[in-house]
Amino acid sequence: MKKKFTKKELTEFKKLILKRKDEVSDEIKHISDDTLKKSQKDASGDISGYTYHMADVATDNYDREFSLGLASNDRQSLYELEDALKKIEDGSFGVCEDCKHLITKVRLKAVPHARLCVKCQEKREKK
After folding, report:
1. Residue 28 in domain
2. Which of 27, 71, 82, 93 is most buried by a 10 A CB count?
3. Is 43 part of any domain?
4. Can you give the pTM of this predicted structure?
5. Long-range CB contacts (within 8 A, 24+) of 65-74
6. Per-residue model confidence as pLDDT tens digits over 81-93
């Protein structure tokens, strides 16, 4: 059984990871631009000088919190993708942290920052 991916395979994964990193970074920037740079009045589209209805304020706050949660999840994905790049450099990329077997290419193409093979992931999720 193969213990490591070839340099060519690692180069393909590196390209995939860098592309995903760019996509996630763009998504974070988009969420930040939409959520954080607008005042509450701008976000709600209200241009009148009247005060907000409590329900409108609650909805705006919920939308803002939801967007910030998405950005936080995206940041976590960025950290995981960075870690995958480090693993490519140190030669440990694609090796399951539990059973030490190679993670399948199909799984890594879907989740390039995967740390576990499918079987070990399922075992952890059952716990």
Report:
1. yes
2. 93
3. no
4. 0.70
5. 67/31, 67/34, 67/35, 68/31, 68/35, 68/36, 70/27, 70/31, 71/28, 71/31, 71/32, 71/35, 74/24, 74/27, 74/28, 74/31
6. 999 999 999 989 9
